[in-house]
């Protein structure tokens, strides 16, 4: 599978107004996430060039053991994460790091930083868009590009591989901890960041997402009544498309466009089926 998948307008890339690096969630991959964002990509049309990148770590079924409570079935765990047992067995499920409760450091984070460093060397991105673990990684990259020397392996010839992003979209993100993240987050990051939080997200609960908001010095927070997914109703698609085109614009909240009971899009898993997980 190619590490990079591009889904842009029918026009040549040079005419694209905004190029966005897109990072998938745990147990997804670039292809899966591109399909999940199909409606948003269509809404953006020729104005946004989405570049989806695969996490370097291929997951096996054992990587999901212990992530949920003993009462949760493997099927429910995989479903909640947007994966399937067949997908895991075919090596299609990927991650930016793996969770190990006996280690304080996210396993595989250095390899993912190297992967993204090599992508960033090749072209210029105006912003970054991430979901769940990918949202967490997106925020970490924003902070690192602002202070690249705190992690020397990320440098290229002693310099950052890319200028700081102009914006970040973090959907169901959380604050990553560990030796490397703690050094990167020694000071709040300044990149304008849109934090999208599901009020009924039982995988990344609101409290965890707000810990990331707390170290985001230029944050905008939008909430929806759904769970662990990118909201996809029309009001949200229009809002996100407008934000991606010009994050500095005064864009009305999507919650103003329709009632909160109907503004999320996808059915939300029940809490009993999808307990909070450590990604």
Automatic annotation (TrEMBL):
Organism annotation: Mycena metata
Gene3D superfamilies per the UniProt record, alphabetical: alpha/beta hydrolase
InterPro entries named in the record: AB_hydrolase_fold, FSH-like_dom, LovG
Pfam families: FSH1
Residues covered by region (Disordered): 251-279
TM segment ranges: none
Serine hydrolase domain: residues covered: 14-238
SUPFAM superfamilies, alphabetized: alpha/beta-Hydrolases
Protein name as annotated: Serine hydrolase FSH
Assigned GO CC terms: cytoplasm; nucleus
Polar residues: bias regions: 256-279
Keywords associated with the record: Hydrolase
Gene Ontology molecular functions: hydrolase activity
